[in-house]
Design brief:
By secondary structure, the protein is an alpha/beta fold. It is built from seven helices and six strands. The longest helix is centred in the first third of the chain and has 22 residues.
């Protein structure tokens, strides 16, 4: 991977393990770990849920979008917010900086893990169910990524090893077409 694409960027549905796996992979590879949700919270001085409560869905998405467009890193593992792929230019900006991996989990796993949805800072349009959001976003994730890795059925360590094996070309995976 060249310097201009030296990052590993993790996208996926909330609770897919982006932050947890990102930290683990960063340790294993000697890279820095950056959680874009944390970057937003530090810049805004409030939690994601507080931003949503005050700014609404559109305001939150605008803050997230602007944060991503201003973001630059090298030799890092980056965990994105679950709604980052809403904007193609955000994903183009990140893709120029690294390989984008979509962490796939089943909708049932997402529903089991997201018991605290009301305080997680998740953009959920009024009238939508979690399943509606999952189906909508999954299409965005798969369109935005370079590779999809199934992390639904494995431990954190197993999922991290699977992602690293995929990056080394050593694991069966659904590859995305070259851009």
């Amino acid at each position: 991977m060249g310097k201009e694409r030296s990052n590993l960027i993790l996208i996926g549905f909330p609770s897919s393990g982006k932050s947890t796996l990102g930290r683990t992979i960063a340790k294993k590879t000697g890279r820095s770990f950056i959680d874009l949700d944390q970057v937003i919270m530090q810049q805004e001085g409030r939690t994601l849920q507080q931003i949503l409560d005050v700014e609404g869905d559109e305001g939150f998405l605008e803050i997230e979008h602007n944060t991503v467009l201003q973001f630059h890193a090298e030799n890092s593992v980056i965990a994105t917010g679950g709604s980052v792929p809403y904007f193609d230019d955000s994903m183009d900006h990140l893709r120029r900086q690294g390989i984008v991996v979509c962490l796939w989990i089943s909708p049932e796993t997402a529903e089991n893990r997201l018991w605290n949805l009301s305080d997680r800072g998740v953009v959920l349009p009024e009238g939508w169910t979690l399943r509606d959001l999952y189906e909508y976003r999954q299409k965005l994730y798969e369109r935005a990524c370079d590779v999809v890795v199934d992390v639904d059925d494995v431990s954190v360590r197993g999922a991290a090893d699977r992602i690293l094996r995929v990056l080394n070309g050593d694991w069966p995976v659904r590859m995305k077409p070259s851009r």
